[in-house]
Design brief:
Number of helices: 14
Distance between the termini: 87 Å
Mean pLDDT: 83
Strand content: under 5%
Oligomer: single chain
Order of helices and strands: HHHHHHHEEEEEHHHHHHH
Radius of gyration: 27 Å
Length: 341
Amino acid sequence: SSLTIEGITLEFMASKNNNGTNCDNTYRTYSEVLKRIKKNSIDLIYKRIDKITRKEVEDFLNFQREKGYAQNTLKKDYQMLKQAFGIAKERKYITEDFFDGYYGIQMPQSILPEEKVKAFKIEDFKALLEYLYSPDFKYSHRDEYLIAIHCGLRIGVLGLKKQDIDFENGLLHVRRTTTSDKEGHTILGDRTKTPSGMRDILLNELTVPVFEHAIKNMKPNPNDLLFCNKKGNVFTDSTLNDCLKRICKHVGIEENAHNHMLRHSYSTNSYSAGIDYKVLEETLGHADIKMTMDTYTDLPIEVQRKELQKYVDSVKMLLGDSINRYTKEEKINVSLENTKE
């Protein structure tokens, strides 16, 4: 029935998918969320939405929380329920939206500690790079990893085409990424993950040789993909992820490595090197700098100490000899106290 949470959600999903607002990958994500809610509460999904009580919704969300779901999972389930009630209220299926207003139902907080995706430790990052550049390298996908590292790309680097590399103007045109269809199969997308992800990245002396090597060794394929499997299709994320784990194990990196750590390492090392935050934001394809700094940048203690020293230096410059005089007096007093003891 269109009066149930499932019916409302399916209709909304179909309309967004048909008009191109959402891609097939988003449709699949919605389907998985709906399936999870259905698994944990059949009554909530199939019951007419005007017959559902506030307590039933709150009990379900608390059940999800106590089950130990991660915050991102709780967020998706909460947003789907909130969306269904919002549509129902707009269409006058219900008179009260439990999620609306100051006393509306709030998103539950996971009992699990939130884990931030981290960059490689500097010593591990160095070991990884040294091996990627080594003549003894014996694995696959070296060019893909180097491009992801030096350009700050998601592993959607797999969606690059030969014509995206503009050597004449020194630019990499990022226009699409790999994605999934409704069945979960990896396919070549027709756009980037977000609108801000559509961008141009400057080529440099690190990236030009890698792209030249990749083009020279690319396999003929109908999509003119820079990287493809034997059938001429895009690689899956898991293919590169599994290979990266093997490489890291080979060079002695104990941390549980995965593809996205390459992008985080680029961000962290770029910021540590003093690259302007606005340039970093543009290169990573973020809509705002908050995403760049909060999610993608781990500040090493040395960088924090160096930056905070700027404040110390400014105070010393402001106060001049008076602060030096205070320091000298303290040393004298400490010395006298020690002498008395």
